[in-house]
Amino acid sequence: MFVEKLKCARCGEEHGPEEKVFYCSKLDGRLDIYYDYDAISNVLSKESLSRRKGGTWKYRELLPIKKGTKVVDLGEGNTPLIKCNDLGRAIGLRNLYVKDETRNPTWSFKDRPMSVGVAKGIEFGVETAVIASSGNAAAALAAFCAKANIDCVTFVPHFAGAGKIAQLMLYGAKVVRLRWEKEEDPTVKMMLETSRKYGWYPCPSFGPFNPYQFEGNKTMAYEICEQLNWEVPDWLFIPVGGGGLLAGNWKGFKEFETLGFISSLPKIVAVQSTGCAPLVRAYEQGKDPFDIEPWGKPETIATGLEDPFPWDGDAALIAIRESGGTAISVTNEEILEAQRLLAKEEGIFAEPSGVASLAGLIKLQEEGSIDSGDLVVIEITGSGLKDPEVVSKHLGLPPIIEPEIDVVDSYLKSL
Known about the structure:
By secondary structure, the chain is of the alpha/beta class. Helix content is about 40%, strand content about 15%.
């Protein structure tokens, strides 16, 4: 393991790599993980990476797991980067790519951070892991815990999609659905209280309560660099809830730059729903990264982005500004249109949360912010099978008709 130290992003409290620590003692901020990049550069190169099997653990030197730890590998990562010619023509872009995270084992990008979080749990010898989640991270944690023989307790909001709840139950997790009617996120509240009371291992997909899982997000950036033959996108569009994916991507690109694998960095665009956009608001108001204000009760069809407080928002806001990118919010209608367009033009069925990135790209493109020749990557972070109710509510269901050819002909002509 090449970790040098863990350091709180806010107060500067430091911990050694051998300590069994999950968060800052003051609960003040995320424990950022620092690596010895000089030592890593002695054992890792573009050539050595090209000879390795794809997936999260291809980049083990850049992850905070001790050598010899028996990790759980469900085939996460190594998702395709797809050149989208038809979608590009539809919106006026010649070099448009989709990073399709719907191909992960539990159908979302959350498999990346949870694979690393569970590996650290195995290293620590934990017996029970607990999470607060809108559904995707909980499903990922439950799957990896099932394979690792770790008990899993999941706190999810009452409006979590049926597909996500079904996954959790089949993976054997203890599913606790909590009513969310006030501004405070009840899932985070219960996760923290139970982890302290019972000594459970907190493994949510936000850094302040587990710094190890955060590192798994970096692997998406690594893969994009390799899949573009070490060329870097001009623009990278990322859906944002808690901000960990965006911040992790930025850290990944910067690490590859430090190692000399790439020579430039992308402009990063954070995309949130207008019904829950605390990071966008903070960006537009020029807020300090540690002064992001909670949103209140979210109202959006993109339930996976319903984080009234972006727990990794400080790092995400810094990343947006350092990269020269921007932050934008999109409406339910814009998300639904992007979902329809992606499915129709490229055959990719994404959930509303996962396709918000495309909605943001379309909006910026219409404003004239993106050049038609720019190299653009959008991260599609979750499958539409996670939340099929949204589609049925939006489009309705086809009528039931009689199995007679004239009736069928008449119906087909009406479509």
